[in-house]
From TrEMBL:
This is Ava_C0101 and related proteins. It comes from Methyloceanibacter caenitepidi. The lineage of its organism: Bacteria, Pseudomonadati, Pseudomonadota, Alphaproteobacteria, Hyphomicrobiales. It comes from the Bacteria. Pfam families: DUF5996. InterPro entries: DUF5996 (IPR046038).
Length: 314
């Protein structure tokens, strides 16, 4: 890839809405496998996915004394299940129902001697049906599945650069399959008011544990009902007074009154002369709005952006 527009591919939500919905559910199946096999880690960090040079992976998952992983390969359009004995199973990504995909994944794990049982009801999706009953979602456009992953590669890279300028507690840069978004979150170190919960098909206890501490969070959605285009977002919990009116950049960013979040259309970043700088402007300015509004100890929590091969000065 030789220019910014190729590195940041066109990703109109309307062109792949059905594929996105199917991939969302497929990713939930894979993520739930990691979820049930891994010890709970604060803020549900134990069950997320991570960007790779070919797609999205669970990373290593324990199974008793054995280990395995699952990786979406959006170059070859496969889900690859790899076990610690060197045996792999490949499951094709093509137009197929969620029920069929679920059955294929469970069969592959069983054949590898790695049987797993998950809760079949999708999370964070209203009016959901169990995976094994879902004969509706069956779209897969390989062109847009690959474009989405290629966008995530760039977003992952810039998010990690942004993460390098914070000394306090910070999440990994990771992909949440529940909400089908990439995210990175900073913490002030203070506890937060009890979250009210109410997320569709998600136990309140999970949301309350996720938001147990004060945060400034940013992320990326490929599009969803309510925001019918790919977009970056940023929010604070709890939201400090004056946050919505804070000046943020770049010029295309705005505060979404219904979502109670700042939003920056992906296309504004893609079209910018320097997409990295445009995205960093959004990440930094929205974080500063949260940190200043809530009186975070910024001097103790921040440092310059990291430079490859150069230790941070102390």
């Amino acid at each position: 890839m030789t220019n910014a527009n190729e590195a940041w591919p066109d990703l109109p939500y309307s062109a792949w809405r059905d594929t996105s919905a199917t991939l969302h559910l497929w990713s939930q199946i894979v993520g739930k496998i990691r979820l049930v096999q891994s010890p709970w880690l604060n803020h549900s960090w134990h069950c997320t996915l991570y960007v790779t040079p070919r797609g999205l992976t669970t990373s290593t998952i324990p199974h008793g004394e054995r280990t395995f992983d699952l990786t979406f390969d959006f170059v070859r359009h496969l889900l690859v299940v790899s076990s610690d004995d060197g045996v792999t199973k490949e499951i094709g990504l093509y137009p197929r129902t969620v029920a069929d995909f679920y059955a294929a994944v469970m069969a592959a794990l069983s054949e590898l001697g790695l049987s797993v049982r998950i809760h079949e009801m999708p999370n964070e999706i209203p009016d959901a049906v169990p995976f094994s009953d879902d004969l509706t979602h069956a779209a897969y456009d390989p062109v847009y599945a690959e474009r989405h992953w290629r966008a995530l590669v760039q977003i992952d890279r810039v998010f990690k650069l942004f993460r390098s300028s914070f000394l306090g507690k910070s999440s990994p840069v990771h992909f949440f399959w529940g909400s089908f978004d990439m995210a990175v979150t900073r913490f002030s170190g203070r506890t937060a008011p009890l979250h009210p919960g109410g997320v569709p098909n998600l136990p309140d206890a999970v949301a309350q544990e996720a938001y147990s501490h004060e945060v400034a969070s940013a992320g990326f959605w490929p599009g969803s009902p309510g925001v019918e285009y790919p977009a970056f977002y940023a929010y604070a919990y709890p939201e400090p007074e004056g946050y919505a009116e804070a000046p943020v950049g770049p010029d295309e960013a705005f505060y979404h009154q219904e979502l109670k979040e700042f939003v920056l259309p992906y296309d504004a970043v893609r079209a910018a002369p320097d997409p990295d700088r445009a995205l960093l402007d959004f990440l930094i300015s929205t974080y500063e709005a949260a940190a200043d509004g809530a009186s975070w100890d910024r001097a103790a929590l921040e440092c310059p952006l990291g430079v490859p091969g150069k230790p941070r000065a102390v």
